[in-house]
């Protein structure tokens, strides 16, 4: 079964038995630390804190989501997609379901799945489907949980940030619009990808983030023995040469062609509500 990082905690959930570790959005009672708000648990050796879920996920048709099976019924599965609205996966929408099998033999409570939002009725009851090449039960890898409002920044403009993570770390990544992200591959590379995603979540509002993430990945690969310092230096030299060539060509174009009036570009994050 896939590991789930940063589990969701509810107000009043016990977080620690060491009152000295109490951090933001927690409270101490009887020498124990409890969650004050609904959010993501962030726990280290010295501190326990809760990152509030500022924006709950509101499903849209066609969304890719990652969910956890909460209940098995005779005709399907009730799935938690970290939304105020209930999601249901009918047996006929799961290709793994066969006439000689029972629903709990295909998916059981606690299983994680990648699915798509197929329908939303007027009462906001969500129907899922797994009839898509992207959809699957998650048996391996790691599931990272972030604030759903940060998903567009993790994906990046035209998928640039995800492409960077995949190419630099050679891992599989599927991003759920509901803030759950599946990562699979070499355990050390998966850990670097997880760290990078948390940095993106925390610094989503800042400029130059893609370059900082690229530098972070290169540094962590060296620290974890996945790359040698000289290899990283060579890559940086090649990048600098490439930039110089592009700049030279740009200068040529500027001298040969008349400048055109181009409307200002609207960042994709704004279009997605960032």
Care to describe what's here?
With 274 residues, this protein is α+β, with helices and mostly antiparallel strands. Helix content is 30%, strand content 27%. It contains seven helices and 16 strands. The chain has helices spanning 103-106, 151-155, 160-169, 187-202, 209-223, 229-256, 268-271; strands spanning 3-5, 8-9, 14-16, 26-29, 32-35, 39-43, 48-52, 64-73, 76-80, 87-90, 112-120, 126-129, 136-138, 142-145, 172-175, 180-184. The strands form four sheets. It has a five-stranded mixed beta barrel with strand order 8-9-10-12-11. A four-stranded mixed beta sheet has the order 1-14-16-15. The two termini are 33 Å apart. Mean pLDDT is 84; it is low at 249-274.
């Amino acid at each position: 079964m896939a590991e789930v990082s940063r589990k969701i905690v509810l107000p009043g959930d016990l977080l620690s038995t060491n009152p000295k570790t109490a951090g933001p959005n927690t409270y101490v009672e009887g020498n124990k630390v409890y969650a004050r708000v609904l959010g993501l648990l962030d726990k280290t050796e010295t501190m326990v804190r809760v990152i509030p879920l500022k924006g709950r996920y509101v499903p849209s048709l066609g969304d890719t989501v990652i969910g956890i099976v909460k209940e098995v019924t005779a005709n399907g599965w009730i799935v938690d997609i970290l939304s105020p609205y209930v999601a249901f996966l009918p047996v006929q929408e799961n290709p793994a379901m066969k006439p000689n099998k029972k629903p709990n033999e295909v998916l059981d409570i606690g299983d994680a799945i990648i699915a798509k939002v197929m329908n939303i009725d007027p009462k906001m009851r969500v129907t899922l489907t797994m009839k898509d090449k992207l959809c699957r039960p998650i048996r391996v890898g790691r599931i990272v949980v972030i604030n759903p409002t940060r998903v567009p920044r993790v994906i990046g403009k035209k998928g640039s940030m995800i492409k960077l993570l995949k190419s630099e770390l050679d891992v599989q990544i599927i991003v759920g619009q509901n803030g759950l992200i599946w990562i699979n591959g070499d355990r050390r590379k998966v850990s670097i990808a997880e760290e990078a995603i948390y940095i993106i979540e925390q610094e989503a509002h800042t400029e130059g983030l893609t370059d900082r993430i690229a530098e972070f990945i290169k540094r962590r690969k060296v620290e974890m023995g996945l790359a040698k310092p000289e290899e990283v230096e060579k890559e940086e030299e090649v990048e600098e040469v490439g930039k110089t060539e592009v700049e030279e060509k740009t200068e040529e174009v500027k001298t040969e062609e008349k400048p055109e009036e181009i409307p200002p570009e609207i960042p994709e994050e704004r279009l997605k509500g960032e």
